[in-house]
Amino acid sequence: MNEALSFLEEWSREGMLPWTAHCAAVKHFGLSHAAVERLALKNGLFPARYQRNRMMIDVHEQLRLFSSRVAVIGCGGLGGYVIEELARLGVGHLVAVDPDVFEEHNLNRQILATPNNLGLAKVEAARQRVEQINPAVTVTAVQDAFGLANGRELLAGVEVAVDALDSISYRLELAEVTGAVGIPMVHGAIGGWYGHVATQFPGEETVQGIYRHWVAGKGIEQQLGNPAFTPAIIASIEAAEVCKILLGKGELLRNRKLSIDLLEMEVHEIPYDQPVKLVRAA
Record's superkingdom (predicted)? Predict the structure, then answer.
């Protein structure tokens, strides 16, 4: 590794490592892209691909992101954008969980959906996309539905779970499991022109409060559908919340819900700081 580090230091410019040098080190020393990125960051070299992060995220924080493991539960409208943004941000390990394959109705809004991907597992499309845009990021693709039965196993070693589900019952199960294993959950939901985001830490019940009147069904998305822009906006806020959690900085959407109306361009903050009693479907 000393020889590889000397190589990287020789090729770096003003503390930044160009992608061409990164790839040359992969080829010359037989290392993975992840190994080269880890070596660079641990020794204070900033990969040039992240240079626009540099004014808000220093090299030690970039290493923190690279060393993190985040689960994205659902790889459709919200999840595809979350995965794209976290990979570009430099989060080192993503666990992508979704049981479905792409269908034609996904093409209007899901960034991972293309005509060539119709019939392809969403998690496999996520893995392939991340390999294209940032091969230093590892993706564990799990083509399965998240639930109470497998939730603990899927979240093993995960630091943050992102809710990109389209089912209220499953996201309530995600809230239950994240609370049980002691990790934060970033919740997002969309429907038509509308969406909301909230962050819940263990012991909090924001998500349960949001859905306290729910009794059955998937939710308003099934009635309103979704255009292309709503998932992109809500997913971006979710990705920002994940970044802040991992870096321990900024003000999080805890004990409150950020509600966004894109039709009237209104944003509201709704507090959820009181214990609630959840009404479940029979």
Answer: Bacteria
